[in-house]
């Protein structure tokens, strides 16, 4: 069973080295992940080299291998890291809110994260070719948590009862393409008018309750 199986909790991948325990080691590891985020986003996975990453992170080539056994390993670690960071920020932003408020605040938090991590889209899209299982894991991990919160909201009477997983992917799609269109492509961010249009759709649907 692979490390991205939906049937188990996320296990520590077999390729991952021990996590650094000291602050200095954690900072060195993070510098390399930050460098990889820029380079994989700008140059692409296949064009970026380990030497590029170590040069940008200002670490020796030998140091890289103390933290990551290969370029594929740091790419996988980066995708997991971005996934974890984004989900963590969304959880913190929406903690204690009703679903109606959480959708608005969560969407705002998502756009802020995408603006700070403009290479997120490019990196995740590359994962489809570099490691398809990782690519599917990235979205399934989001959907799993989203589905859980939607089911909680349905039980609390905050939402109409429907298929929570289908709804999770619909809402993820709204956030994904709005961020891609205005944050990634235009680099300006989602305007108030565009944001409110999305919220109107989320709250009332395309028919406005007239169906």
Tell me the helix content: 55-70%
Helix count, DSSP H or I runs of 4 or more residues: 9
Order of helices and strands: HHHHHHHHH
Low-confidence stretches: 5-15
Mean pLDDT: 90
Strand content: under 5%
User: Gyration radius, to the nearest Å?
Assistant: 19 Å
What gross morphology would you assign?
A: elongated
Structural class: mainly alpha
Instruction: Please summarize the sheet with the most strands.
Output: none
Q: What's the β-strand tally? A: 0
Span of the ends, CA to CA:
45 Å
Written account of the structure:
The protein is mainly α and 211 residues long. Helix content is 70%, strand content 0%. It contains nine helices and no strands. α4 runs parallel beside α7 (132-155) and α7 (132-155) crosses α8. The longest helix has 24 residues, at 71-94. It is elongated, with a radius of gyration of 19 Å.
In short:
This protein is mostly helical. The chain is built from nine helices and no strands. The protein is elongated, with a radius of gyration of 19 Å.
Provide the fold topology.
Layout: H1 23-42, H2 50-57, H3 61-67, H4 71-94, H5 99-116, H6 120-130, H7 132-155, H8 164-185, H9 192-204
Question: Which tags fit this structure?
Answer:
mainly alpha; 9 helices; elongated
